[in-house]
Structures are given as C-alpha cells and as structure tokens.
Amino acid sequence: MGYASSMACHCAQYAFVPSAQKNNIDKTNLVPSKRPMSLLISSISNKRDSYNTFVSEAARLLTSPARFEASKLKVVVMGKEMNKYAGIIPRTYILSHCDFTANLTLTVSNVINLEQLKGWYSKDDVVAEWKKVNGEMCLHVHCFVSGPNLLLELAAEFRYHIFSKEMPLVLKAVLHGDSILFTEHPDLLDSLVRVYFHSSLPKYNRMECWGPLRDAVEGRQGS
After folding, report:
1. Staygreen protein domain: which residues (predicted)?
2. What's the rounded mean pLDDT across residues 187-209?
3. What's the confidence (pLDDT) of residue 65?
4. CA-CA to 86 of 20 to 30 Å: which in 20, 28, 92, 212?
5. Once rounded to an integer, what is the mean pLDDT over residues 58-84?
6. 17 DSSP 8-state letter
7. pTM above 0.85, yes or no
8. In this predicted structure, what is the pLDDT of residue 102?
C-alpha cells in the first residue's frame, strides 16, 4: 500500500512534462481545427478511457499482491477493557503499514483512534468497523484514495487499484489479529464485507460489496 502512494506520486510528477520543442512551434502555420465538437469530445473521451486502462494495467503488472505473514503483524489492543471484551459491537480496526520493513500494525479498539488517524489523507492506513445493517452483521472497510489536496487522477487511479489488490491482505490481518473474536463467533465469516473508497473524484468515491468475509479474504470478490 505504501508502494502505491510513492509510485503514484512519482508517475504523476512526470505525467505532464511539457515538450522541449513547445517554444519552437511556428504560430503562423497554426490552423483552427475544423473537426466537429462532438468528434473532439469523443476523441478526448476515448483517450481518457485508454489512459485509465493503461494505469490499471500498470498497477496490475508493476505490483503483485503482498503475501500475509503473521510474523510481520503486530496487534495493539487499546484499553484494558478490550482484553476482556467479548462483544462484537462496537469494535474497530486500524491497519497501518511500514514502507521500510513491510511490517503491519493492527490496532483493535471499541472506538476509532482519532489521534492515530491524523493526516489520514497522506497515509495508507485502512480503517474497519463492525456494523449491524438490517439485523445482519457487516464489516465496513474504509480506504482513502484522494483529496483534500486534489491529488492528480493518476495517483487516485493507482491508489484505488492497489487498495483493491491488497484488500485480502487487510482482511487476513483482521482475521489473524482478532482471532479470538472469530473463534467465539465463527458466523462472522459469513458477514458481508463492504469496502468504502473515499475520494474527491466521483469515479473513485464509491462503495463495493465484496461478499462474505470467508470469500473476500481469499480475493473472491462478491457482488
């Protein structure tokens, strides 16, 4: 996930480098385009679709899903009451990632630790919490894709695809880090996983249902 942010920003930096020959254009030879506006809009739209396809394919090829290693996961339980707490709600998770060591830290609490979330928009932390929707338990996962600094669409595209690719790793960390909960409540494996991507761009500001937890953790995304 940290790789996604650095790679996206690196690519964004060089995505719109001006041509070195821009000042050598003979302006007297410029002729206004006679193409109909509808064709111009269609051309721009097709180029954007091709560009987005290129970015998503690049994200797929440049990175492979990280393999979960229990030895690299540190679990932090916030509050003494959580050690004896057997309930499901309220229960929240914050998963943070170290770019240098690839170590993961899972914070388990009955409230979202706002202090830890400071600067969320500049991090790759993932937040999750148990919710009851229409009488059914659901795991809601939140990923920050872009904003409020209005990141370039290239960065948002990369972050969205990387978060999606690493979602099974996130869920495995939750299953392992809070294993006592799932031992006591095995039916939670049948709970739906809803992933909320937060972005200033409407395209990536979305919710996806990943199906039952037991499938989502293996990368078998539901509908």
Report:
1. 67-216
2. 94
3. 67
4. 212
5. 73
6. P
7. no
8. 85
